[in-house]
Design a protein that fits this description.
Blueprint: H1 2-27, E1 30-35, H2 39-45, E2 62-64, E3 99-100, E4 106-115, E5 119-126, E6 148-151, E7 160-166, E8 173-182, E9 187-196
Parallel strand pairs: 3-9
Antiparallel strand pairs: 1-4, 2-9, 4-7, 5-6, 5-8, 8-9
Length: 197
């Protein structure tokens, strides 16, 4: 009887030790884009209202990695598949504030990381010509490959990350999807930013 009780106690202790370690990789990495200003960042700063809890957690748009083959479901990409951040998937009739950018020009992308993490890459996708800005984002609305990728090969970035890449030739309103791929968890961070060429 005593050995059974000791065995159960050991199992409980092992579980209590293992659970925080299992979730440590997910909980300690967070970030959002400030340029292009993401929808999450615009909610944080109050530039956009009626955002729900994302206004306090712009760094928490974390979902499964592997985009575009995996990751959040279509129509839920901007929220990383998280229901509590569904306001980010609402196109608001195409009225999200949009940063003015130059077709084919260079743009500096900036991330604020509230907790850094070993990183595979930062990747940037953009909507196709003729996409519908009044509909939630789907893979079919994006060019299939990222227009810009910055590889980190498992390195841990600092609290601010900037890199400059060339935008594709586009015109009118578009959406840029920034994906921060984490190296040592099954997740990535997703940020949607609206632009006008």
């Amino acid at each position: 009887m005593a050995s059974k009780l000791l065995g159960r106690l050991s199992a409980i202790v092992a579980t209590c030790v293992a659970l925080p370690l299992a979730f440590a990789g997910v909980a300690n990495a967070h970030g959002y884009t400030t340029n292009v200003p993401s929808r999450a960042y615009l909610c944080k700063t109050g530039a956009v209202s009626n955002c729900g809890p994302i206004q306090w957690e712009p760094q928490s748009v974390e979902g499964p990695k592997g985009f575009p083959g995996g990751g959040p479901a279509n129509g839920r990409i901007c929220a990383g598949g998280l229901g509590q951040f569904a306001q980010l998937d609402d196109p608001r009739g195409g009225s999200w504030p949009a940063k003015k950018v130059t077709s084919g020009g260079n743009l500096t992308f900036s991330w604020t990381l509230t907790a850094a993490h070993a990183t595979t890459s930062f990747r940037y996708f953009i909507t196709r010509n003729g996409w519908n800005p009044s509909a939630p984002l789907t893979r079919a609305q994006l060019d299939p490959a990222p227009f810009y990728t910055v590889n980190f090969n498992g390195a841990r970035p600092g609290s601010t990350v900037t890199h400059t890449g060339r935008l594709p030739a586009k015109s009118g309103r578009h959406l840029i999807l920034a994906v921060w791929d984490i190296a040592d968890t099954g997740n990535a961070f997703y940020q949607c930013g609206d632009v006008t060429f």
